[in-house]
Amino acid sequence: MRDPADRTDPAGSRTVGRPVAPRPPRPDAPTAPVVGRAGSRPVRDGRVGRSAAADEDGHEPDDEAAPQEAEERAPTLLEQMGGVTGVVSSAVPVIVFVIVQAIAHALVASIVAAVVAAVAVAGWRLVRGEKLQPAFSGLFGVAVCAFIAWRTGQAKGFFLLGIWTSLLYGGVFLISVLARWPLVGTLWHLVNGDGQGWRRSPRLRRGYDLATLAWVVVFGARFVVQHWLYDSAYADTWLGWVRLAMGVPLAVLAAAVTVWAIRRATEEAKAEREAADAEGTDAAAA
Question: Cys bridge to 36: 20, 29, 40, 208, which one at CB 3.0-4.6 A?
Answer without folding.
Answer: 40
